[in-house]
Known about the structure:
- With about 575 residues, the chain is an alpha/beta fold.
- Among the domains are: about 390-465, Luciferase, Domain 3 (Luciferase, domain 3, Roll), CATH 2.30.38; about 470-570, ANL, C-terminal domain (GMP Synthetase, Chain A, domain 3, 2-Layer Sandwich), CATH 3.30.300.30.
- The chain is built from 19 helices and 28 strands.
- Strand 27, helix 18 (about 525-530) and strand 28 (about 540-545) form a beta-alpha-beta unit.
- It is globular and about 70 Å long.
Amino acid sequence: MLASRARHLSSPGSTPETALAATQDGASIYDAFMTWHFADLFETIAAASPDRIAIIQGDRHIAWREFDRRADAVAADLLSAGVSHQGKVMTYLYNSPEFLETYYAAIKNSMVPVNVNYRYGPDEIAYLFKNADAEAAVFDVQFADILDAVRHELPLMNRWLAVGDRSQLPDWATHYEDVATSDAKPRTTWTRDPEDLLMVYTGGTTGMPKGVMWTQSELFRSMGLGGNALLGIEAVDSMETLSARATDPAAPNPVALMACPLMHATALGNTFQLLPCGATIVLLEGKSFDPAELWDAVERNNVNWVTMVGDAFGRPLLAELEASPNTRNLDSVGIVYSAGVMWSQEVKNGLLDHLRVDATLVDALGSTEAPGLGVSVSTKDGTAATAKFTIGENAQVITEDNRFVEPGSGERGQVGFGGPMPLGYYKDPEKTEATFRVVGGRRWSIPGDFATVETDGTLTLLGRGSVCINTGGEKVFPEEVEEILKLSGAVRDAVCVGIPDERFGERICAVVEPDPAGPEPKLEELAEMTGARLARYKIPREMVIVDTIGRSPSGKVDYKGLKALAISELQT
C-alpha cells in the first residue's frame, strides 16, 4: 500500500506524468503550461477570489485582494527606481507576508526575486549580492548595519526598502510600508515570458552559495502544474479552470504552515506549489523556531499541512508534545512534509503517536536542483525506515562514469533527476556542467547525493560525497553513522567528520551535542552502538563535545567548520 502510493509523490505536488489531462483542443498540459507565469496564476486567483485569505501571521490575515494590491505597489516602486527587466531583487527577510509580497512584486515585473540567508555575515552578504548582480533589496531593519558595511561595494543597486521598526530606518533606505500602502500599479515596457527566471541560492554543505536558475515554466511543471496528489487536487489546464476552482466553494482550501525559513527551498518551494492550489500559507512570528508557537498556530488556524526539515524540527516538535501529552487538539493536521535533512524513523513514529489516525508523513528526497529524487511515506500502518526512499519516477542512480546502477547490485552511485529541472547555476558554467550531465541521451540533474538501490527500487541514502570520509580506502558517508548516534539518549545531535590519521588517512570523529536531559555521552558506548549496526570501520574513534552543532535554519551543517573545530580540540 505504501509503496504503490509513494510512486506518485516524488515532489511536493503531483508529478506531470500522473497529473496530465487533455485540454479542449486535445493538447496536453505539457503544451498549455508553456504559456503560463506565476504572476498570471496569482493574479487570476486574486481576481476570482479576492476575499480568500492568502497569508496568516499571528493576527495578520492577508486576503488575496490585499496581497495583490501591495505587490502591485512594490512592483511599481521597483520599476520607478530603475530596476531592469530580469533585474535581481534580494529578499533579505525573516518569514513574513512582506517576503511573499516581494517575490510576487518581482515576478509581476519579470524581475528575479532572490532569497538571502539571514544568517550570513558581511563577507557572505557582499559575495551573494555581487554574484547575483543585485539591483534592489527588501530587508529587515535588523540587517541595516551589515548592509551599510557592504553597500559601497554594490554599484548596481537602485533601491533599498526596509521592513520593521521605523526608528531603526537608515537614511539611505525607504520604509517598505510607505511603498506598499500606495495604490500604484506597475507598467512595464516588456511582456512576461514563461522563460523568466526565478533564482534560488543554495549553500549546500561546502563552498560559496550558488544561484540555481529555474524558468517559470519548468518550475511550475516540476510543482505539479497546479495540482497536489497528497491533497487530492487536480492539475489545471487553463486559467479558466484555475479561476473556476478558486471560486468553487466545494474546492479544497488547505491551510499550510511553513515551520522552516522561506529563504530556503523547502518552504519556498512548498509555498509556491500550494498557493496555486488555493492554500492559505501560515507563517510563525518568532525569528527563531519555537515548537510551542508552532503547535499553538496549528490549533488556532486549523492547519492541515505542516512543512518542516527533518529531525532538526521534528525532534523539538515531538519533545514539546511529549512534555504535555493529550493537551492539544491536532485533529486538523493530515500531512507533515519534510525535505532537505534526514528524518529518523524514531521521530516519525513519535509524531504519529500524537496525530490523527489517518495522518501522513512525507519525507522527500530532493534538492533545489533536483526536486523529485525519491520519497518515503509513513502512516500509522507503517513507518519508513531512516534514509529509505522509493525512487522517483524520473530518477536513476548513476555512477561517476555515467552508467545506471543495476537495482540490487549493491553498487553506489549518485541519484539523478531527469524531469523538469533548472537551466543551471548563475554565472558558473563549470559547476553547471558538473551537476547537469547528459547520460543515456538525456539531461540529468545530479546534485551529489550518494545511494544504493535495492531490487524493489528502494533507495538507501548514504549522504553527500563532498563530506565523505575515506578511512583505509573505505568510504564512510557521515549521515549513516550520525543517525545511529542520535538514537542514544545521551545525544541531541551529532555530526561525523574525518580527521587525519597516519595509518588510515582519516579516522572518524563524532562531534556530539549532548542531550541536557540524558546521561553524559561516552565514546565507548557510542562506538558499541555503531558497531552493532554498521561495519566496524564506520565506528567513531574520537569524540568532541560541543554546546551546539549549529545547524542552519534549514537544518544544514557546516561540516568544514566542525572538522576544523574537531582537529583543533583534539590537538590541544
